[in-house]
Structures are given as structure tokens and as C-alpha cells.
Amino acid sequence: MRKKTYPWLVLAALIVAGVVYGLWHTKPLQVDTTQIKRGTAVQAVYATGVVEPTINVPIAPRAAGKLIELLVDEGAQVRKGQLMARLEDANLQHGIEQLQAQEHFAKLALDRQEHIDKLGLGIKAERDKAYAEWKAAKAATDRAQEERSFMLLRAPSDGIVMRRDGEVGQYIAINQVLFYLAVAGDLRISADVDEEDIPLITKGQSVLIRADAYPTQVHEGQILEITPRGDSTTRSYRVRISLPKDTPLKVGMTTDSNIIIEKHENVWLLPASTVSNNKVWLIRNQQAQHVEVKTGISGEREVEIVDGLRPEDVVILTPPAELKTGQRVTPTTTVAASNSSAKS
Question: Are residues 188 and 253 both part of a single domain?
Fold first, then answer.
């Protein structure tokens, strides 16, 4: 009996054979590769901030007037009670002199009445009246002198003048800040953290700090405080970061801070460009293979690899979009993964 043939099966087999032959004998795709390396993975929250004194005291007059004398300037160290500036007080001084004259006259009248009382010729009511008039005149003088003292701006404590906002001849309103005084103490950083990151922040966390003034240095600090109320406009919360006593950073410098949330030492790292949806492309037997991996801390530059790779695996650094499983590939250069931290 004649056997039945299936031409379509033969055709399909030829097509598959042709595809396999074509894939194998076409020119291999050249790709850059890398290998996993040991390093430190760090999950961190980024924040920008400004260096400031721990206690910053604004100094403003309690009375308005024209600024006629500046005795200290920015950067000056002052002692508690030291005179820093003086507002015009000529009119107040004239008023004080007038009140002092009235007080002196009232005191003379009281002294005469007391002398008469000692002679037994006085009247108690007259003596009481003289005493009351003298006390009123003295109280008026004391009040005028106190008002004049408002025109003298003195340091409330020891510190450094960080800022001066005023010039001689300028009219200074009541409670208009003329000086900002940094009270002697440690410096700190006041930084803003996005509201979606604030649940990760706790007191005592370590912070790595960089400043443009010292581009090659990394400074260390700790979270001191977290404001309980955020800013609805910027959608951020303010945090305070401590600085060591010997910090070279100065008040007013801007900083970039990385608040350390989690840190894994001596783990496997790969460049972030190699990992997509927890999968990486490898070269095995000169072919591209797409394998799944388990990742840990993921940063902008590097990703922690927990499981799924062997140390000898060759990983495609930047997989082309057209890459397919089984496609022939050949490495051009091998770029070593960094041993530096993988930061989020």
C-alpha cells in the first residue's frame, strides 16, 4: 500500500532548519558586557539643605527710628550686653532732660516739706502730696529712659553676627530685624525631604553630606529632628542634620545630603542598565539568554543582585531593543562593575 505523504511537514522542517542555520551563520551582534562585583549597596533619601547655626537670634528695635551708628558688622564676635547699633534718640533725650528737671523740682519740694515736718509745723496731707508728685515725676523719668534704651541694640548673648540688614541713615521700623546673631554652639543643616520619603526618616540615621565648596570631601552627620508639620506648597518636610564640631562647612553653604535608610555590605552589584523587570541578558555558549534574577537595593547607577547569577556570568551591559533569546552575540569590551555604593 502506498504511504500517504505530508508535504507541509517537510516544508515546515525546512523553514525551521533554515531559520536556525541563518541565526547561527549570520554575523554575531557585538555588545558591551560586564560581570558582577562585590560592593556596598545603600538605600538613601536625597535632600538639599543649608548650613545654619543651631540657635539663630534675630535682633530688632522695640522703637522706630533712623539708624545713626553701626558698631559691629557681619562676622563680628560679640559679648552679651555689647552695644551693636544705635538709633536716633535726640528727641527722647530732650524729653528725659525735661522730666529729670521736673523730678528734681518735685524732690526739692518733698525735702522742704519733710524739713517742715521735722520742725513740727507741717501738715501730713501736704507731705503726702509732695511725696506722690515726686514719685510720679520719677516714674515718668524712668519710663522715658527705658524707651530711650530701646534705641540701643545690644547683644542678648555671646555669638557671631551672621547677617546685617541696615545702613546708617536708614529708617528702621519697630521689630524690623537689623542683625541675625548665631549663638555660640554647633552648626547644623536644615534640609527639605519630599513627603513620600519622610516615612523612611527617623532620628539618629546617618547622613552623608557634600558641599560645592568642598567637592572632594564627604562629611558625616545624623538626623536630629523632623518637623511634625510639612509644607503643603512644596510637599516636603524639614529635617535637622547635625554636623561635627570641627566641620569646615560655614553658615549659609548649600549641601546635598544622602540620608542612609539601609546598608548592605559585601554584596553582588550590577550596573542598573543591565537589569529590567528583574531580568538580565547573559552570554552563554555565544548566545543571548534572558534570565530572571532576585534584586535587593536598587539605585540609579547600580542594583544589588541577591540570587540568579554566578560570579563567572557575562552580562550584557546595555541590551539592544532588538535582542532575542538564542541570538548569537559576541562581547566587544568588558566593563567591570564598580565596587562603590549602590545608592537609591
Answer: yes
CB atoms within 10 A of CB 256: 14
Residue 110's closest CA among 132, 142, 141, 143?
A: 132
- Which of these three, 230, 264, 298, is where a domain ends? 264
Residue type, 46: Y
Judge whether 3 lies within some domain.
no
Buried b (16+ CB within 10 A) or exposed e, 187-206: bbbbbbbeeebbeebeeebb
**Predicted model pTM:** 0.58
**116-130, 181-195, 216-230: segment of lowest average pLDDT:** 116-130
* CA–CA gap between residue 221 and residue 327 (Å, rounded): 50
122 in a domain, yes or no? Answer: yes
Q: Are both 82 and 103 inside the same structural domain?
A: no
Q: Which distant-in-sequence residues (6+ apart) come within 8 Å of 217 by Cβ?
A: 210, 211, 248
What pLDDT score does 10 carry? Answer: 52
